[in-house]
Amino acid sequence: MIKKELENVIRTRANSTDVAQLREIVMSPDFRFVNSASVSVEPKQEAEQMKIHYDSVLNSGFENWGFESTIEKLSISQSENIQFIGFKGAGYSAKLYFEGIPEKVIGVIVTRRPSVSPAIDQSGKAL
User: Fold this and answer.
1) Which helix (H) or strand (E) segment is 107 a member of?
2) What confidence tens digit (pLDDT) does each residue in 60-81 have?
């Protein structure tokens, strides 16, 4: 997926309440994809992992949206072709989940830290 494709998906398929925030991320000068290609996931397992991540986000007080509806959709999905693409920008981190093709959006999760995350070294430790 390229940035232009993501912009089109957001404009045409994302929930209208998410569009302005997602557009802010994509149009940000520091926009970047987290993964170079979409990642396939098993939906029920991903829903369980997202519940753990959501608890952590809530406990940390991060700004967030989209978790509950996306977790619900993943937990009931029967599809064997669920994928996501991760991206960052404007201080936000986001994952766009879709079924097979990006135009079939099933959910979006977004978090924003109250402060910029620390730089890390190659081993993953904060500098």
Assistant:
1) strand 105-112
2) 888 899 999 999 999 999 999 9
Residues 12, 7: Cα–Cα separation, whole Å: 9
Q: Which of 32, 31, 22 is nearest to 107 (CA)?
A: 22
What is the rounded CA–CA span in Å between residue 107 and residue 99? Answer: 10
d(CA 61, CA 72): 21
- Whole-prediction pTM value? 0.80
d(CA 77, CA 43): 6
Cα torsion angle, 59, 56, 90, 101, sign: negative
Q: Is 100 helix (H, G, I), strand (E, B) or coil?
A: coil
Name the nearest CA neighbour of 66 among 31, 25, 96, 27. 96
C-alpha–C-alpha distance, residues 99 and 116, integer Å: 32
Place of tokens 């730089």: 119
